[in-house]
Each structure stands twice: as C-alpha cells, then as structure tokens.
C-alpha cells in the first residue's frame, strides 16, 4: 500500500506518494524547533517543504553514491562526504537537506550542530517525479546563489544525470546519459553514468578501483 497524505481544509483531500507539500507561514526558528529529524523537511523563504517518504530504490542509489564518495575521500585523504537528512543552511532564509554532499577539508571542523552553515563543494540530489522541478530549477538557483561550485541531479526515471557547474554567478547545465563524468570540485572523482542505472547497483569498491585505474 502506498503512503498517503491527508490535507484537512473545508474538505479533506488525500494525496498519494510521491508528493511534495509546501506549507506557508513558517519562520526559520519554528522550522529548526519543530521539523522532525527523521524526515525530509526543508525551509525556503517562509515555507516548509515536506517530502514524501523515500522509496527503497531511492535509498539504495543515495547509499551507493555516498559510499562511493566517502570511500574516495578516505582513500585520497581529501574532504568528507555526508548524507541526509542533514539541515544545511545555504542562504539566510533557505535550509536544504541534500541527499549527498561533500565538504572540503578546511570546512570539516566547522560542520557542527543544526543547521550546518558550511558550504559544500559538491551536492548531489536523486530526483523523483515529485521533486524534479524543485531539484533542477529552484535548488539549482539556490545552490548557485550560495556559491556551491558543483551540483549533480540524478534522474533514475529518465536515466540522465544533470551536471551544474559555476559560470560566474549562475550555473551552466550539462545533460549526460552515458560515459564518464568527472567532478571539477572533488578532484579525481568520476563515475560512469551507466553505474547509476544498474540493477542491482554495482559494488562501490569495484567502481573505486576502476576510478583509480582511470586516474593513473
């Protein structure tokens, strides 16, 4: 049975997952006090964004990307990969909870408490039909404004990876459907886009060995 959300107004309305609910009239202080720690709630300009529960497929892909990046950071002794839900205040009135993000070495000691106020060098979101517009438009604008050098949006349904890289104060977007994609923010890190669509997902350890061979 799918997850449902009931909205009570003059007439109750039921929404089937996946959904993205936007609720106005919130302050940042209220969000930080009342938002649940075990769910994805974001805050943007007076609204909270309530995400439907993630699917197992979404979690597997997020876990694969996190393991790949964290092991890469450990092997190269550069940076740290973190995963959500983690409240990241990227602008004074915007708190996002990215799926995966990477911090530069100098920012790791400052990543403490809630919300985090450090700026990642790379953010990755695994998108879904309910969040595709949010991830590819609104979040891309926010991350660019916040000065995040690189932002990736993984779209499993369409089997495409959108890569956003800083160009002045905005992003230049590139759609990739096959082959290698190299990060400019996490030097040496790359992946084969085809890995993202494999079922089951490949071994992160074997993928890292392929990355290392490519970098030699």
From TrEMBL:
GO terms for molecular function: endonuclease activity. The keyword Nuclease applies. Residues 35-193 form the Putative restriction endonuclease domain. InterPro entries: Nuclease_put_TT1808, Restrct_endonuc-II-like, Uma2. Keywords: Endonuclease, Hydrolase, Nuclease. PANTHER family: SLL0198 PROTEIN-RELATED, SLL1222 PROTEIN. This is Endonuclease, Uma2 family (Restriction endonuclease fold). The lineage of its organism: Bacteria, Bacillati, Chloroflexota, Thermoflexia, Thermoflexales.
């Amino acid at each position: 049975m799918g997850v449902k959300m009931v909205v009570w107004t003059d007439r109750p309305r039921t929404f089937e997952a996946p959904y993205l609910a936007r609720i106005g009239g919130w302050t940042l202080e209220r969000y930080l006090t009342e938002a649940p720690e075990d769910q994805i709630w974001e805050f943007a300009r007076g609204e909270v964004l309530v995400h439907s529960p993630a699917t197992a497929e979404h979690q597997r892909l997020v876990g694969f990307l996190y393991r790949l990046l964290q092991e890469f950071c450990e092997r190269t002794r550069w940076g740290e990969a973190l995963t959500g839900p983690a409240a990241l205040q990227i602008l004074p009135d915007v708190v996002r909870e990215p799926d995966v993000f990477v911090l530069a070495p100098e920012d790791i000691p400052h990543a403490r408490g809630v919300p985090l106020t450090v700026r990642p060098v790379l953010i990755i979101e695994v998108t879904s039909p309910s969040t595709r517009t949010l991830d590819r438009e609104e979040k891309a604008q926010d991350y660019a404004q916040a000065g995040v050098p690189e932002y990736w949006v993984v779209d499993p349904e369409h089997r495409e990876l959108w890569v956003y890289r800083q160009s002045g104060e905005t992003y230049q977007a590139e759609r990739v459907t096959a082959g290698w994609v190299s990060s400019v923010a996490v030097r040496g890190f790359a992946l084969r886009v085809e890995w993202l669509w494999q079922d089951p997902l490949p071994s992160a350890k074997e993928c890292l060995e392929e990355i290392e061979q490519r970098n030699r």
